[in-house]
Each structure stands twice: as structure tokens, then as C-alpha cells.
Amino acid sequence: MRLTKKQQLYSIEDIVESRRLGNNTVEYITSSGDRIIRYYHTDILTFKPDGSIVFNSDGWNTFTTKERMNIYQSQARIFQYYNYWFLTMNHYVYSFFDGITIKDGKVINKKDPDYEAIKYSIDEYIYFFSSSKTEIKNTTGLEDRESLLKYINLNIYYKNIILNALQEAGYTERILEYNVKHVIKRCLGRYLRKRLLV
Question: What is the pTM of this model?
């Protein structure tokens, strides 16, 4: 499905300048000076004014996402080995994670020591969401890091968190009427990874 530039950028408010780069790919500049490459609804590359570059797949580990990351920057290469992504730069190879940031030929942020455990917990939480016994609470769940981790460990699902995940991905509340659990799972997983794995 091909999106227009307007559809891709509809939720972003501080755009100074934008242009289409390719199929479902746009570049925009924010008022803070960040130059961002967006593929569909994911900011895959963020070029900061200090010279650093932030890589982000938002869980969309597809061939085209990886290809776009490699086309629109030249400091590092992203490659895949089996189902795992890696970033290679200056003869070093690093495990890829969303939010990995490079500057002057070095990775400047490291993974949270609990990264793998949290990632596993999110995957398990999303897997159990499709269970027929899943109850979605109508009360409001908090969205700070500590609360989200607690909900994941206890398998508690709050409607407001699911709605925020869907909205961030460009969907409306109406999608809940259709019970499209695979879409909800994908959006919720991306939403949680973005908040807990950086």
C-alpha cells in the first residue's frame, strides 16, 4: 500500500521542511534540527545536529527497512544473519537494537543489561494477548516504565495502553470492533519495545 507524504507525516507537528525520497519514504526536518528518514510510520533514521545517527526499526525487521537504513546513511551497514540484525562499522560488529546510536565511528549507547530479559517478557506478553482468556481492563493503566514492566510480568492488559499503541501506529479505536488481534499485537509490541528497550 502506497502512502502519500501527508498520510505519513499526519501525526508530526514540528516539521520545518519535508520531501519524498522514495516509495513510502520521506525525509523531514524538525524545529530542533533533527533530520529524519521515515519509512511508512516509522522514523528509521534520525540525524541529530551533534552528528549522531539513531537507528530504529520499531520491530519491523524487514528487508526493505534494512535496505532503507543502508541507502540513506553511509557510516554503518545493517545486515541480517538468520533472524538477527547486526550493525557493522569500522570492522566491528554490534548486535542491532532499536535506538542504537552511532557518532564518529562508534556506538555511543549500550544496551540495557536487562534488554534480553525485557525483550523476552514483551514477546511472551504479546503472545498471550491472543489467548481467548485475555481480559482487557477498562480502567486506566499508568504508562511509566515501572508500571509497564509490572503489567507485562502480571499479564495485565489496559484498554488505554492498547488504544495509545494503535493510535501511535496510525489506527483508530474502531479497529477494536473488528477484533483484529494480529494488528493489535503488532502495534502493542512496537509500542512497548519503543518505551522499554531504549
Answer: 0.63
pLDDT tens, residue by residue, 89-146: 988 888 888 889 999 988 998 777 777 788 888 888 888 887 767 778 887 888 888 8
Where are the chain's structural domains? 5-107, 115-196
Place of cell 494477548: 129
> Do the Cβ atoms of 52 and 30 come closer than 8 Å?
no
* Spatial CB neighbours of 112, under 8 Å, sequence gap ≥ 6: 118, 197, 198
Buried b (16+ CB within 10 A) or exposed e, 73-97: beebebeeeeeebebeeeeeebebb
One-letter amino acid at 46 equals T
Cα 150–Cα 170–Cα 24 angle in degrees, nearest 5? 125
* Closest residue by Cα to residue 197 from 142, 118, 120, 85: 118
DSSP 29-53: EETTS-EEEEETTEEEEEE-TTS-E
